[in-house]
Write a structure and sequence with these properties.
Strand content: under 5%
Number of helices: 3
Distance between the termini: 74 Å
Structural class: mainly alpha
Largest sheet: none
């Protein structure tokens, strides 16, 4: 059996307001949990408590998600700043070495 190979190159991942999206989702899960709390007895009578606890779990897992994406955003920002600094240093190094190079026929001074 032949191994599957992609016909097209994979697209770049979508980047957007990841922290805001995860925060909004977390708030939504906690809001749903709080809205269902007054009906806890109704859910218990019908063996549907999983609805309440699913929302609570979603909210708490969302807190972990917020922590994770904030760290990811900070790491991406640090990486971009380091790459920009390295590029600036490389450009400055090339500009400095270009000024110190001598063209043909130029004397470098007395030689022993």
């Amino acid at each position: 059996m032949a191994k599957w190979t992609a016909k097209h190159e994979a697209p770049e991942p979508l980047e957007g307001p990841v922290v805001a999206t995860v925060t909004g989702g977390t708030i939504l899960w906690f809001a749903l949990f709080l809205v269902q709390l007054p009906f806890y007895g109704w859910f218990a009578d019908r063996d549907q408590l999983w609805w309440v606890w699913t929302c609570a779990a979603g909210g708490f897992l969302g807190l972990i998600g917020i922590w994770y994406v904030r760290g990811r955003e900070a790491a991406l920002k640090r990486h971009a700043e380091a790459a920009a600094l390295a590029a600036r240093a490389e450009r400055a190094g090339q500009a400095g070495s270009a000024g110190s190079e001598q063209g043909p026929g130029q004397d470098s001074g007395p030689q022993a």
